[in-house]
UniProtKB/TrEMBL annotation:
GO terms for biological process: methylation. GO terms for molecular function: methyltransferase activity. SUPFAM superfamilies: S-adenosyl-L-methionine-dependent methyltransferases. The keyword DNA damage does not apply. It comes from Stephanodiscus triporus. InterPro entries: C5_DNA_meth_AS (IPR018117), SAM-dependent_MTases_sf (IPR029063). Keywords: Methyltransferase, S-adenosyl-L-methionine, Transferase. This is DNA (cytosine-5-)-methyltransferase. The keyword Thylakoid does not apply.
Length: 376
């Protein structure tokens, strides 16, 4: 499996969860390293196939900021916006280089937006007619909204057996103990709202929106209510991830950087540096990310904030450990939806080519999945 991911924290989450899982993982830091800077580079793609190929399946989640209606400065002509189209061109180039084999299968995801004809053409076999994306909202598969486009050339079956049940699932049972959905508080009477379906709004990734006012829960406390935004664990559950999938590796990383990249070197009497304490696998964070420190009420009385590698951004965003977790969840996919879209892959390959992946045997904690055995 070849991962092309420029965010080193996201890479660390993947490595933590999928180390020693029976799959050989290769990590490429920049998309440009396999594609080229502007136009597609045939030699780079050919080298990719020679080193890691043949490539059977491409999954892509290109940056969405330039297409999102929530971004006031969206610009479909920006450099970041071109990744969505470049993935389609990469797939065509792979098909060309791997000629004689079955076509590369793909799923490319992005936000729902208008005027996507040029993007559609990049994923189509013909020049004049584009591939229309599927539009799927995760609220039909679980407790969390996530309306997205999926450009896909894999046959996708009916979802009615899931959506008939999951569409009626509310987020209440996914919240931490004692908390309830704010929607039940602001509407009239508990009797009237008991049967009302409440879905969490789509989780967002930008620093200014990861904890916005749409992501609130409440807990009764004597004669008042305690309000909080959704926790990391709640967001993991609602997106279909096992609890701790994001939180545990990010906590381990931030603890390691705080202790061995800063505290130990600065308190060393022998003049040692981070290279004497920090594992070499983490040295690259000093090159890829910026570091910042914020006051904190508990020992060591500061907390590390790490910038995400947002190339071209004049003012980088700095995330604390908790914020980075929420940032990654906001950038992620709804697992139940992707499960459904990819389910028919099993029908495209001979049984003797398939083997079970048992690293995560996980049943989503809502119906109809609770009654089924679901592997992710």
């Amino acid at each position: 499996m070849v991962h092309v991911e420029h965010d080193p924290v996201a890479v660390e989450v993947c490595k933590h969860n999928h180390r020693d899982d029976g799959i050989i993982h290769h990590y490429v830091e920049k998309f440009e390293a396999i594609y080229g800077v502007d136009d597609i580079d045939h030699n780079l793609v050919e080298a990719l196939v020679k080193k890691y190929g043949p490539i059977d399946l491409v999954l892509s989640g290109a940056p969405c900021q330039s297409y999102s209606g929530l971004n006031a400065s969206r610009d479909q002509t920006s450099y970041n916006a071109q990744y969505l189209q470049k993935v389609g061109k990469l797939i065509k180039k792979l098909d060309c280089i791997q000629g004689g084999r079955d076509r590369v299968l793909f799923l490319s995801e992005n936000v729902v937006f208008k005027h996507h004809d040029e993007v559609d053409k990049c994923y189509s076999d013909t020049e004049c007619e584009g591939l229309t994306p599927m539009r799927i909202d995760a609220k039909g598969f679980g407790p969390c909204k996530r309306n997205r486009f999926y450009w896909v050339n894999i046959p996708v079956g009916s979802s009615s057996h899931i959506t008939e049940i999951a569409s009626a699932v509310s987020l209440d049972d996914l919240l931490d103990e004692g908390y309830k959905a704010v929607a039940r508080l602001v509407t009239k009477g508990e009797d009237e709202t008991a049967s009302m379906v409440v879905k969490a709004n789509a989780f967002l990734a930008s620093l200014s929106r990861i904890d916005d006012d749409r992501m609130m829960k409440y807990k009764p406390e004597e004669k008042k209510y305690h309000l909080e935004t959704y926790s990391i664990s709640e967001r993991e559950r609602m997106m279909g991830l096992p609890v701790g999938y994001v939180k545990d590796p990010v906590h381990k990383l931030f603890s390691e950087l705080t202790t061995n990249a800063f505290i130990n070197p600065e308190t060393s009497e022998e003049g040692k540096t981070y290279r004497d304490y920090l594992h070499p696998d983490l040295w690259h964070y000093r090159k890829l990310c910026l570091f910042k420190f914020q006051p904190y009420s508990e020992n060591p009385f500061f907390q590390l904030a790490l910038s995400s590698p947002q190339e071209g951004k004049l003012q980088p965003s700095f995330y604390t450990e908790e914020q980075y977790c929420k940032h990654l969840v906001g950038n992620g996919w709804s697992i139940p939806v992707v499960e459904h879209v990819l389910a028919q892959l099993r029908d495209l390959f001979a049984d003797d080519m398939l083997s079970p992946y048992n690293k995560y045997t996980y049943t989503h904690p809502w119906e109809p999945y609770k009654s089924l055995s679901t592997n992710i």
